[in-house]
Amino acid sequence: MPSAAEFPALIGFAFVAAASPGPNNIMVMSSGANFGIRRTLPHMFGIGIGFAVMIVLVGLGLMALFERYPLLNTILTVASVTYLLWLAWKIANAAPPQAGGDVGKPFSFLQASAFQWVNPKAWAMGTTAITLYAPEHTLSAVLIVATAFVAVTLPSLTFWVFAGTMVQRWLSKPARLRAFNIFMALLLVGSLYLGLRH
Fold first, then answer.
1. DSSP three-state, residue 58
2. What is the pLDDT of residues 138-165, one digit of tens each?
3. How many C-beta neighbours within 10 Å does residue 79 have?
4. Is 143 a member of any domain?
5. Total domain count for the chain?
6. Does residue 145 belong to any structural domain of this protein?
7. In this structure, is residue 70 part of a structural domain?
8. Of residues 162, 180, 194, 127, the one with CA closest to residue 37
9. CB of 107 within 8 A of CB of 31?
10. CA 60, 156, 179, 110 torsion: positive or negative?
11. pTM for the complete prediction?
12. Which range marks the domain in which residue 11 is found?
């Protein structure tokens, strides 16, 4: 379990991990620009709660399973790359919200929660946090790590969504929105590359 002296380090690690650019932050910024804060709230809470659940499950046994069966890592990597490339394509080709259709819908709570399982950055953050701050894998230690991430992830996501809404008026022209979505899709692919290198 993290000691009182280690807890500030855990919060700092969680903040840097959660606030730095990655698939989650890029996607909520894009959602904020396309749909606004209110419609992006389920996406935000899905990330925060879904990632916390992932940390708990990884800390209580899934990490050992992946260490024992390396093929699972390969399967997860292929699934992550495939899904993130599909999401990047979907973001790049998103229709304006007023155009209707499925491509104009923000992520739901469940979609955002499930996304954590194919997010390379989430896996890297979660496994590193457990290794550093809950190496004994006890329930209490793992819950502290998960709680620390929830505490910093939601404020961090709020910043990224707000940043997206700040450019929303500028994106009122379809050509600008299209260019922004393509740029965000390229950033998502770039974050995938960086996540896989860690």
1. helix
2. 999 999 999 999 999 999 999 999 998 9
3. 12
4. yes
5. 1
6. yes
7. yes
8. 162
9. yes
10. positive
11. 0.78
12. 7-197
